[in-house]
Design brief:
Elements: E1 9-12, H1 16-28, E2 33-36, H2 48-63, E3 67-76, E4 83-84, H3 87-93, H4 95-102, E5 110-120, E6 127-137, E7 152-154, H5 167-173, H6 175-190
Parallel strand pairs: 1-2, 1-3
Antiparallel strand pairs: 3-4, 3-5, 5-6, 6-7
Helix pairs in contact: 1-6, 5-6
Length: 195
């Protein structure tokens, strides 16, 4: 199948930074994506899989064409996985200084970033793809990128936070990159047939 021979694939997200990351990764595989700004209402759940599946189903009902959504969260071990699926709400309320305050003096700073992509098309079962990156919470804000990037140090890097890494390196080791690579591999084999 030639991924360029059908309409651009829709990425349902209101987050321009998330879209830019995905666009760069998908472009390398020859897949064109477009941002669809109608973000479905997220259900409250402890499972990223449930949230992503529900959002995908909602978006499909509105759009009726192939699309994907992504849900991600940072899970801090010392805080029993908090903020996890509630990461975007916590970012808006506590933000990075609040997380660092909660973690003040704590030696166990292990955290994992997880990403779940849900892909759907009409009359077909929704497919899920997960990626994760282990790391730790920094002791101060380092870098100016979006989200929790300035306080998350991935184990696979050189001690830099996500925010201090070049886009090229982050797009190779991030949780989102890993879920997108799994999705791309599947999509190139099993994505929608050309019309």
């Amino acid at each position: 199948m030639n991924p360029m021979s059908h309409s651009p694939l829709l990425f349902v997200t209101g987050n321009k930074d998330k879209f830019a990351e995905a666009q760069q990764i998908m472009k390398r595989a020859g897949i064109t994506i477009e941002q669809y700004h109608e973000r479905p209402v997220e259900i409250q759940s402890k499972s990223l899989h449930e949230i992503a599946r529900h959002s995908c189903q909602q978006a499909l009902e509105q759009v009726q064409q192939p699309l994907f959504v992504e849900d991600a969260g940072m899970f801090i071990y010392h805080l029993n996985g908090f903020p996890g699926p509630y990461s975007s709400y916590v970012l808006k309320t506590l933000d990075n200084p609040g997380i660092l305050k909660v973690m003040e003096g704590e030696k166990n700073r292990v955290a994992v970033f997880r990403s779940v992509i849900a892909y759907g098309e009409p009359n077909r079962e929704i497919q899920l793809f997960e990626g994760e990156t282990m790391g730790r919470i920094s002791r101060r804000i380092r870098g100016t990128e979006w989200g929790f990037d300035p306080i998350f140090i991935p184990d696979e890097g050189d001690g830099s936070t996500y925010a201090e890494l070049s886009k090229e390196i982050k797009n190779r080791i991030s949780h989102r990159a890993k879920s997108l690579v799994k999705f791309v591999q599947w999509f190139l084999k099993y994505g929608p047939e050309t019309t």
